Amino acid sequence: MLEISHLRYDVTAEDGAELGILQDISLTIDDGKLVVITGPNGGGKTTLARSIMGLNQPTGGSIRWNGEDITNRSITDRARAGVSYGFQQPPRFKGMKVRDLIALAAGKETLSPAEGCQYLTQVGLCADDYIDREVDSSLSGGEVKRIEIATILARKAGLMIFDEPEAGIDLWSFAKLTETFERIHRQGDSTLLIISHQERIIQLADEILVIEKGKVAKHGPREEIFPQIMARTLPGCGYMKEGER
Amino acid sequence: MDKTEWKILREIAELEKTPQGAYNFRVNGALDDRQVTANIDIRSKEDKPGIDIIVKPGTKGESVHIPVVLSMSGLTDVVYNDFYIGEDADVDIVAGCGIHNTGCETSQHDGIHVFHIGKNARVRYVERHYGEGPGTGENILNPRTEVHLEEGASMTMEMTQIRGVDSTVRDTVVEVEAGGECIINEKLMTDGKQVAESNMEIILKGPGATGRVISRSVGRGESVQVFRPCMTGKADCFGHVQCDSILMDEAKIKSIPAIDAQDVDAQLIHEAAIGRIAGDQILKLMTLGLTEEEAEEKILEGFLN
Q1: Contacts of B299 in chain A (CB under 8 A)
Q2: What is the CATH number for A146?
Q3: How far is CA B238 from the centre of its chain?
């Protein structure tokens, strides 16, 4: 179970003002759930996800995973405790092969072709074409993103956090990806936290969490929250309203 | 050879026992063991230290190992090796020098290699330099490699120096005739107070000649590295120089790639970059469960592999 209690992340602006990127976020996510985090840009979704992984150190509140307080634990310790995070903009590694990166993720010295194939196929990449390529600038943004997701699949962690996994990915790979999320969810071994704005992904969710202006705007079952989001999409926009006049 | 010398041999040539094919082991400035084959002859020079390696035209799929081991502190070994590779041959050459220095005196090996590569022949050349030992004496390696590639000939050179060499000045000169190809992969890591200098001159002389230099280095501790790769195009040719370095601690790296076009159809490119390990690379590997130190090592290992 993931329990977040009164989580804050403040940064100081150039003029000295305190900006509350996350303001008093509290929520509980049960094991095996698929939760989609959505909400407007700049609302704090990525900061929340990075705080769970330890990439941002919160300025207040606590994070508990499987009953253990991980708020002040290092990234490495959190990873070893079963937290994983797929970067929105993954880094590239000159010289490091796809095979090496996935082997590291799987916690293995080397990766058999069958294992490599298993993870890459799930993100719509052909292992034969990619396993020995370097994770460098010769790969496109979408390819790097899919390899990033493959590393999370290879980790088989108890908590999988994906930060806009669909960004930069073509339609065909996206279909494959939603199938993969669906399958992991069905197997029930991992809790999935997916930041996404895609209806196809939102439709997979048990719960939807809407983060807005650093706060939990809504959190509840998909059946309850999804219609509310859809109803707000157009009428909520001031410019759209202006255009109607 | 004793256990220490075999260990060095493993480091520089990945050899557990005497290899198949032709070989010449030089230990502490003298011949230790040699084997020739029907197609590859090795002869000691009479006027100066060193050997001539003669590969018959058309020789395919054979290899020559010519490692040098220095396990006696205070030895200065200069050796002249000339390679004559016949037309249409296709061979692997594994060279390299390892020093085990237990004393306080300087151990030095200067290998001067000259390659004459015949028409349409292909050579893969691997050279590893390595130093170790509990002594305080310096390990110095100053290799000079000259390559003459005739029409259509090609040579791929893997030159690696990862640890234990206190001072090195490496000079490499390659001349490529029409349709020939030269690929140089250089990997270098220095640490402590080590200094390394690598000067390369690749001259693309004939039409269709190709030259590629990929140099990757890591500077740690207070070490200093200087790179001066120069690619000259004298015909309708293609040359590419790429130097990438990772800088750590208090190390200093100077990279001065040059391209010199002397023909209107010469296409020459150079790229050079020096920087520290990107923070998000370390963070990514930490999210996979590695410590910061393990992440750094993996990034360097990938970069230099």
Answers
A1: 93, 96
A2: 3.40.50.300
A3: 22
In total, how many domains does chain A have?
Answer: 1
**B287 neighbourhood in chain A, CB within 8 Å:** 53, 55, 75, 79, 84-85
The CA distance from A34 to A206, in Å, is 5
Q: What span, in angstroms and rounded, lies between the C-alpha atoms of B98 and B202? A: 27
Bridge partners (DSSP) of residue A60 are A8
| Mean local confidence (pLDDT), A82-88 | 95
Closest CA to A73 of B304, B128, B286, B42: B286
- Which of B268, B204, B201 is CA-nearest to residue B235? B204
Select from B63, B18, B25 the least CA-distant residue to B44.
Answer: B25
Hey, is A59 helix, strand or coil?
A: coil
**Parallel/antiparallel/unpaired status of strands A215-221 and A207-212:** antiparallel
Of B77, B86, B68, the residue nearest B106 (C-alpha): B77
On chain B, the residues whose CB falls within 8 A of the CB of A94 are 216, 244, 302-303
Q: Does residue B305 belong to the interface with chain A, where contact is any CB pair within 8 Å?
A: yes
Contact A80 B289 (CB under 8 A): yes
Written as one letter, the residue type at B47 is D
Residues in chain A: 245
Domain containing residue A115: 2-244
CA gap A63, B156 in Å, rounded: 54
In A, what residues contact B, Cβ < 8 A? 53, 55, 74-76, 79-80, 84-85, 87, 90-91, 93-97, 100, 104-105, 107, 151, 155
Share of chain A above pLDDT 90, in %: 74
Secondary structure letter of residue B18 according to DSSP: P
- pLDDT tens digits, residue range A16-42? 888 889 999 999 999 999 999 999 999
Could you give the ipTM of this predicted complex? 0.92
Cβ atoms of residues B143 and B127 within 8 Å: yes
Q: Which residue in the block uniquely carries the two structure tokens 């594994």?
A: B94
- pTM of the predicted model, to two decimals? 0.86
